[in-house]
Amino acid sequence: MNVPASTASAIVLRDVGKRYARGPVALQSVSFEVGAREFVSLLGPSGCGKSTVLRLVAGLDSPSGGHIESPALVGARTGRAADTAFVFQDPTLMPWASVFDNVWLPLRLAGQSRIDAARDVRRVLASVGLAEFETAFPAELSGGMRMRASIARALITRPRVLLMDEPFAALDEISRQRLNADLLAWWQSTALAVLFVTHSVFEAVFLSERVLVMDARPGRVVAEVVINEPAPRTSEFRTSLRYAQACREVSLALEADQSAQNGIGT
């Protein structure tokens, strides 16, 4: 599974495995690349190792075998900034801090004062639609707004790689679709590499240039579906025959693997 020849790779996994000391094999022979400006989704059932892949790429855990290249791992070896941001399903905002201070946090930890960071914080808050909420506290925000604040905190460091672990799973469908569209706009404007974990076929197809289908026991990539739809992707795409056909192709890849696991496939 390769990225386009014209695109440099931001993330590379080669035959990566992960076995826990007192558990099953979480990953086996996982190989794929993500281009420097590519949006790739990992799609699969619970327990297939999608989140484990993100943790390995982020340097939060170590593989049992294989090879991984990512900005986070380079940063860990060289002492440079990791150039990687991680957005979790839970926004993980500090409840006692304002939206401004939550977004400022990565810059504060890097030694930048509140005054020096103010311009960048306000810029990124405006880009995610929270310009008027910088003094609000997380408890005063809706679920979608809290996730916007979490994404703003990730974008404030201008990362090269954005890792997202089911960030919109807890939101209502309207909020989820709106954030999907906004995420694509942010990605296109910042030239990020995005590795996105989801359980939703519909979300994966709308967002991604490629969808990697994973299966569990042990976790591995079993199919790749390329979504040939140019930007910008709008609500018109969601109701198009192209979208339906892409969703069908991804769904069939999931179903084919499940049938093979159950012993009824060809």
Can you describe this structure in just a few lines?
By secondary structure, this protein is of the alpha/beta class. It has helices spanning about 50-60, 70-80, 100-110, 115-125, 145-155, 175-190, 200-205, 235-240, 240-260, and strands spanning about 10-20, 25-35, 40-45, 65-70, 85, 160-165, 195-200, 210-215, 220-225.
- Give the SSE order as H and E letters: EEEHEHEHHHEHEHEEHH
**In CATH, what is the homologous superfamily of the largest domain?**
P-loop containing nucleotide triphosphate hydrolases
- The gyration radius over C-alpha positions equals 19 Å
Count every helix, treating DSSP H or I runs of 4 or more residues as helices: 9
What does the average pLDDT come to? 90
Portion in beta strands: 15-25%
Proportion of residues in helical segments: 25-40%
CATH architectural group of the largest domain:
3-Layer(aba) Sandwich
Q: What best-fitting shape do the alpha-carbon axes yield? A: globular
Which structural class matches the secondary elements?
A: alpha/beta
Number of strands: 9
Reported for the largest beta sheet, the result is: 6 strands, mixed
- Which oligomeric state applies? single chain
Uncertain runs with pLDDT below 50, 5 residues or more?
1-6
CATH fold label of the largest domain? Rossmann fold
How far the N terminus sits from the C terminus, by CA atoms, comes to 23 Å
- How many domains, as an integer? 2
Could you give the order of strands across the largest sheet?
A: 5-6-7-3-8-9
Q: What would CATH call the class of the largest domain?
A: Alpha Beta
